[in-house]
Write a structure and sequence with these properties.
The structure is a single chain. This protein has 5 helices and 6 strands; from the N terminus they run ββααβααβββα. The protein folds into 2 domains: 68 residues, no CATH class; 72 residues. By secondary structure, it is an alpha+beta fold. It is 40% helix and 18% strand.
């Protein structure tokens, strides 16, 4: 016991001993929680083992991983082999913009539940916006009113600096 918490110390490594009724919740949170990415059993074990201990951790993690419906649905052989990753040529700011929505987050005080991440392929400029929903109209409104003006301003600033510096070269 250390500060009223049960720990296991071995070879100067301290691990938190997880009570029976909390083990599955810990797995669910780290495997499928708001910031989790449904790692496979081996990687889950690698993630949990340095910090937590309970008898049969490996066995339970493998079992619970097999019970994850999302992982089971996303598995299976691809219908055709994946192509090789290729560079996408981008010659100017705002020519190629990518977006992604992070979901499964707790509701914030302003009722936001999602984070929209927008990246410009040329400048690699990244902006993140909190959203109340992940509807296409909400996302595009944020991109038009938030991301595009910010990046357009930055691109103009870069061009202006370039024009200012040009005579000096
Ligand atoms: Zn999963």
């Amino acid at each position: 016991m250390r500060d009223d918490v049960l720990v296991k110390v071995r070879d100067n490594v301290t691990k938190l001993v997880v009570l029976v009724n909390l083990r599955r919740r810990l797995f669910d949170f780290t495997h499928a929680g708001p910031t989790a990415t449904h790692l496979g059993a081996t990687r889950m074990i690698k993630q949990l083992k340095p910090h937590y201990y309970w008898p049969g951790l490996n066995r339970y993690v493998k079992l619970w991983y097999k019970q994850c419906v999302q992982c089971a649905q996303s598995k299976g052989p691809p219908l055709r082999p994946h192509g090789h990753l290729q560079k996408i040529p981008v010659d100017a700011p705002l020519e190629f913009v990518t977006t992604d929505v992070l979901s499964g987050l707790p509701t914030a005080s302003d009722n936001s539940k999602y984070i929209l991440v927008v990246v410009d392929g040329f400048t690699k400029w990244l902006e993140a916006y909190s959203l109340p929903d992940q509807e296409a109209s909400t996302c595009i409104t944020v991109v038009y009113n938030g991301f595009f003006p910010v990046l357009a301003c930055r691109a103009n600033c870069i061009r202006s600096i370039d024009e200012i510096l040009k005579p000096l070269w």
